[in-house]
């Protein structure tokens, strides 16, 4: 049977709950077609969880990874604890160290199962192990699990090496740097994990400082796994200077733009303030895309989730980390980054190289389609506010010649959460987590990312009824018709 064409036949009906998005054995998103499905997922409703054929890989086990985890528990008598497959012994040991630091009384060990090192914990260590798995992005991928289970062939080492070389060259061309300054990682969060390890080695014992409301794990990773992270919502430069002087953070972290509010700091000004005080700057250009914006002249490290618009398929987990050629810490950072906790998997690298061959042609289409939808939503009487990087002067200042604003927007509705539920349920597009796919994806992002801290998110100016849209390659007129019909709900 041919895979479902999500451009023409999206997963939006109630009976699509749990379908893999896309229709692939390695899908990283899952259909949550109704608002009540999102709530049921967050409440861990058994019927909802049973229906899930896929899940975002850091938020839970892919079915193939789950098989290996279950086998590890059975083989090593871990019935009341948990097992967490990793691609390398170094990654598993890093996870074990986090568990022991977080829960000193927990019992942990590392056992190899089907060639994959697995962290085993007792019940006391489960929570810490889960947090590390989610935040670090270092867990075994579905393709690595498929190889371990002999469900898919083992790719040749030469094919993988060639793919990695091509990927580094492709990214280096986009960023305008030497390929030696580009690293590949098993996820965007794994890239940030390695960046923070390097920063911690250079500036030990200091927490990081996050500017602007961030993607949940960009804040949680340094907060939970490293030396802590403070959140600063102001973008006023005089205030930033005072806070930089007072806090002396290990590094300043910025998203370009932020998720889901799609705002952007004045990166050149922030970089000048940080550099004058000897503070490194780490930038996340996942949403903006390095094809659209040029952050490297201003940041010391730039990381990106290649899972999103770079791959575009929604069935590859990968990340990149780039050292700025102009960073004052270039040599020190390159030295600290010379060994990876977990390299990008062989099959994942091959899939990513194939998927990203058309990124330079695909991304402008996504830029244009998102801009069209943003403009139409702004003029609709049912919409009270649209969040889009096109409205942000700081984002535009980073744009490359002829570039666009990316594939992501968020919007709020007259009638708040009540109307948001109606519109979400009525939208005839795919609905689930992630972004950057060739098919449109909508989600009530704040519910998915901050379900247990909605009041805190609201206090940061991020409303729980906000709908986030990753615009795909559907015909813009056809896509607008679907939104227009849903807005009448």
Shape: globular
Strand order of the largest sheet: 6-12-11-10-9-7-8
* CATH architect. name of the largest domain: 3-Layer(aba) Sandwich
Residues in helices, as a percent range:
40-55%
Helix segment count? 19
Q: Briefly note the CATH topology name of the largest domain.
A: Aspartate Aminotransferase, domain 2
Largest pleated sheet: 7 strands, mixed
The overall pLDDT, averaged over residues, is 97
Unreliable stretches (pLDDT < 50, length at least 5) are: none
Q: According to CATH, what is the class of the largest domain?
A: Alpha Beta
Work out the radius of gyration. Answer: 21 Å
* CATH level 4 superfamily of the largest domain: Type I PLP-dependent aspartate aminotransferase-like (Major domain)
Task: Provide a descriptive summary of the structure in words.
- The chain is globular and about 60 Å long.
- Helices cover 41% and strands 14% of the residues.
- The chain is an alpha/beta fold and 489 residues long.
- The protein has three domains: 78 residues, 2-Layer Sandwich (Alpha-Beta Plaits); 201 residues, Aspartate Aminotransferase, domain 2 (3-Layer(aba) Sandwich); 129 residues, Aspartate Aminotransferase, domain 1, CATH 3.90.1150.
- The strands form four sheets. The protein has a seven-stranded mixed beta sheet, with helices on both faces.
- Helix 7 crosses helix 13.
- Strand 9, helix 11 and strand 10 form a beta-alpha-beta unit.
- The longest helix has 20 residues.
């Amino acid at each position: 049977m041919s895979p479902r064409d999500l451009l023409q036949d999206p997963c939006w009906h109630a009976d699509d709950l749990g379908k893999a998005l896309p229709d692939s054995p390695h899908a990283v998103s899952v259909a949550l077609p109704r608002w009540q499905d999102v709530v049921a997922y967050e409440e861990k409703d058994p019927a909802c969880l049973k229906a899930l054929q896929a899940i975002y890989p850091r938020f839970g086990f892919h079915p193939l990874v789950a098989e290996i985890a279950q086998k590890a528990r059975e083989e090593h008598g871990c019935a009341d604890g948990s097992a967490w497959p990793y691609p390398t012994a170094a990654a598993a040991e890093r996870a074990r160290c986090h568990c022991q630091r977080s829960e000193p009384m927990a019992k942990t060990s590392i056992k190899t199962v089907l060639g994959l090192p697995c962290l085993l914990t007792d019940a006391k260590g489960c929570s810490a192990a889960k947090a590390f798995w989610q935040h670090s992005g270092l867990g075994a991928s579905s393709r690595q699990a498929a190889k371990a289970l002999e469900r898919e062939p083992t790719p040749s080492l030469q094919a993988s090496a060639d793919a990695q070389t091509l990927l580094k060259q492709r990214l280096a061309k986009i960023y305008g740097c030497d390929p030696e300054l580009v690293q590949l990682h098993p996820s965007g969060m794994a890239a940030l994990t390695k960046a923070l390890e390097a920063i911690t080695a250079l500036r030990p014992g200091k927490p990081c400082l996050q500017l602007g409301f961030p993607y949940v794990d960009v804040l949680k990773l340094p907060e939970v796994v490293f030396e802590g992270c403070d959140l600063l919502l102001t973008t006023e430069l005089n205030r930033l200077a005072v806070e930089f002087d007072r806090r002396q953070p290990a590094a300043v972290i910025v998203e370009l733009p932020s998720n889901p509010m799609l705002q952007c700091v004045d990166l050149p000004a922030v970089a000048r303030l940080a550099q004058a005080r000897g503070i490194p700057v780490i930038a996340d250009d996942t949403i903006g895309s390095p094809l659209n914006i040029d952050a490297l002249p201003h940041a010391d490290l730039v990381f990106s989730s290649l899972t999103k618009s770079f791959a575009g398929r929604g069935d590859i987990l990968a990340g990149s980390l780039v050292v700025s050629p102009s960073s004052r810490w270039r040599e020190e950072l390159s030295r600290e980054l010379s060994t990876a906790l977990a390299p990008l998997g062989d099959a994942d690298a091959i899939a990513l190289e194939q998927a990203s061959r058309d990124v330079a042609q695909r991304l402008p289409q996504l830029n244009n389609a998102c801009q069209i939808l943003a403009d139409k939503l702004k003029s609709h009487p049912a919409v009270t506010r649209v969040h889009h990087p096109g409205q942000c002067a700081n984002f535009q200042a980073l744009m490359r010649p002829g570039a666009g604003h990316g594939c992501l927007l968020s919007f709020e509705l007259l009638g708040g959460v009540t109307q948001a539920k109606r519109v979400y349920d009525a939208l005839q597009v795919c609905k689930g987590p992630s972004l950057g796919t060739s098919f449109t994806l909508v989600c009530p992002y704040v519910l998915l990312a901050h379900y247990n801290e909605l009041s805190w998110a609201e206090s940061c100016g991020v409303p729980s009824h906000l709908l986030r849209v990753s615009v795909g390659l559907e015909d813009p007129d056809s896509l607008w018709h679907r939104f227009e019909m849903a807005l009448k709900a």
